[in-house]
């Protein structure tokens, strides 16, 4: 198992229990006929040379026999790779997708249209659970998150090779071509696994932060800035490297305060730009967030002074969900899952990833595009394998 990279020091402390926004959730059995619902290597680079492009697409093929074992799986999950005939006899799905948000739904749609047997597993907890609407999603601007997922489920129903189940995946074992995916409902097999599990945002240990998260505390002005434009905004800066962000916020309001809690110095040139833009800097430590009727009213400082503030932007630390960490896939320096830029395969052969867990650029439409890309790359390799004798096509 690959070691995880350490997290960088935090300027604002974390609350001991994180916001559990794992995968977009819905719970029920994974296997047909079961009971009622229960809920690094070097990376290839793109090139115009078609021979090198094909090599990038198929670079993981040489690792076909590499085994994967996840802690906590059933006895024997780390056993030797089964024979080809055994895999063919026991295969249940071409692809199991873990996560039923925009990335997972988009991936399932693409794979269904490619006539692959797909199981979409949705455990329910989602990053945008507190958000009232999704924005910047063309044709779906202003759609509630639950409604977007329901629309996606309805569209998947048109493809008989796709099953969408409401359950949490507990363990993944096996190897590329013959994975065993376990939930409380049982174990299924799949040739490939696609992770669309999102991320966990860890709340800062500031009184009121958890309660206001997703309503008055936001991450993305493109997603929610229009609805709260021209109000009093603040930004919880966790380091000097993030001081470009308050200037961006000026596009939606003239009233912006940067809260540094005195944890770092603002460089003179940045301070000059802040002054020119009318952005204020508050270095006194933040003590708590004052709300009225579940909406932010002010930021109280350590000396008891208060700063009027209606909207607070923050970028708390993020971490991968437990299942992803247990798989041991390689992470980059920022903690995102490292994927091949062409194939979208992780460091574990046969395991692919798409959506928020692979990129700092996060949003519903971006996750959907990432899921689609991962599905297309996965399907390309899998189709070649099946067409050249790797097993049944999944179109029966």
From TrEMBL:
GO molecular function terms attached to this record: oxidoreductase activity
Ranges for domain FAD/NAD(P)-binding: 93-229, 270-371
Coiled coil: none
UniProt name for this protein: FAD/NAD(P)-binding domain-containing protein
Top-rank taxon, per record: Bacteria
This protein's record includes keyword Cell wall biogenesis/degradation: no
Swiss-Prot/TrEMBL keywords: Flavoprotein, Oxidoreductase
InterPro entries referenced in this protein's UniProt entry, alphabetically: FAD/NAD-bd_sf (IPR036188), FAD/NAD-binding_dom (IPR023753), Ferredoxin-NADP_redctase_2 (IPR050097), TAT_signal (IPR006311)
Organism the protein comes from: Sorangium cellulosum So0157-2
PANTHER family: THIOREDOXIN REDUCTASE 1-RELATED-RELATED (PTHR48105)
SUPFAM superfamilies: FAD/NAD(P)-binding domain
């Amino acid at each position: 198992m690959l070691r995880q990279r350490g997290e960088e020091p935090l300027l604002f402390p974390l609350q001991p229990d994180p916001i559990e926004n794992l995968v977009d959730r819905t719970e029920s059995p994974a296997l047909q006929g079961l009971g009622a619902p229960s809920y690094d290597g070097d990376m290839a680079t793109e090139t115009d040379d078609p021979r090198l492009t094909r090599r990038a697409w198929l670079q993981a093929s040489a690792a076909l026999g590499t085994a994967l074992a996840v802690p906590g799986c059933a006895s024997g999950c780390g056993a030797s790779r089964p024979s080809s005939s055994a895999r063919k006899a026991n295969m249940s799905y071409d692809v199991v997708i873990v996560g039923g948000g925009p990335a997972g739904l988009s991936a399932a749609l693409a794979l269904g249209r490619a006539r692959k047997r797909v199981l979409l597993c949705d455990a329910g907890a989602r990053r945008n659970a507190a958000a009232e609407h999704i924005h910047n999603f063309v044709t779906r601007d202003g759609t509630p998150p639950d409604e977007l997922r329901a629309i996606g489920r309805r569209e998947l129903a048109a493809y008989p090779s796709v099953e969408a189940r409401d359950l949490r995946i507990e363990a993944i074992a096996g190897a590329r071509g013959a994975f065993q995916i376990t939930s409380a409902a049982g174990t299924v097999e799949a040739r490939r696994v696609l992770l669309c599990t999102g991320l966990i945002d860890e709340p800062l240990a500031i009184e009121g932060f958890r309660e206001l998260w997703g309503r008055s505390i936001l991450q993305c002005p493109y997603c929610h800035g229009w609805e709260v434009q021209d109000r009093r905004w603040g930004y919880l800066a966790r380091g000097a490297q993030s001081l470009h962000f308050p200037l961006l916020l000026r596009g939606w309001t003239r009233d912006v305060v940067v809260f540094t809690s005195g944890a770092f110095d603002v460089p003179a040139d940045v301070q000059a730009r802040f002054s020119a833009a009318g952005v204020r800097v508050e270095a006194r430590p933040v003590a708590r967030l004052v709300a009225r009727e579940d909406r932010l009213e002010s930021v109280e400082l350590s000396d008891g002074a208060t700063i009027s503030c209606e909207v607070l932007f923050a970028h708390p630390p993020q971490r991968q969900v437990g299942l992803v960490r247990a798989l041991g896939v390689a992470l980059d320096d920022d903690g995102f899952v490292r994927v091949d830029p062409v194939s979208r395969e992780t460091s574990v052969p046969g395991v692919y990833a798409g959506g928020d867990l692979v990129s700092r650029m996060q949003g519903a439409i971006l996750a959907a595009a990432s899921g689609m890309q991962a599905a297309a790359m996965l399907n390309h390799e899998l189709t070649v394998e099946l067409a050249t004798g790797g097993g049944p096509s999944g179109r029966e």
